[in-house]
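Justification of resources, computational component.

The compute hours requested in this renewal are based largely on the per-chain cost of generating structure records like the one below. Each record pairs the submitted sequence with a full structure-token output. That output is archived, and it is also reused by downstream analysis tasks.
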Amino acid sequence: MFRSESIQLVHSSSPTDSKYWRVQARLEAPNDFFDSVQEVIFERHPTFKNRIKHVKSPPFEDSFKCWGEFILKAEIVLKDGQVIHRQRYLSLDDNYF
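The structure output for this chain reads:
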């Protein structure tokens, strides 16, 4: 079994122009944890046209352009049916995982 605090949602952001930022968000966890993941469902801000993204294989990442900060949510669905919820405030400030 994995310790809950060892499973995190992390991100990096970098400017693409004067208005938009490129954001990459991913799951960070012990390597053997990923074998137990069925899918990760990322939920972006409600203003996104495609705000829900299902990722069914590693690396469990979401990448997109945005113009403002918000809370990204992730629902981690394990093969045994367990669901783990994570969220992260996406700051836009040239940071890296």
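Strands lie at 8-15, 21-28, 37-43, 52-55, 61-66, 70-78, 83-90. The longest strand covers residues 70-78.
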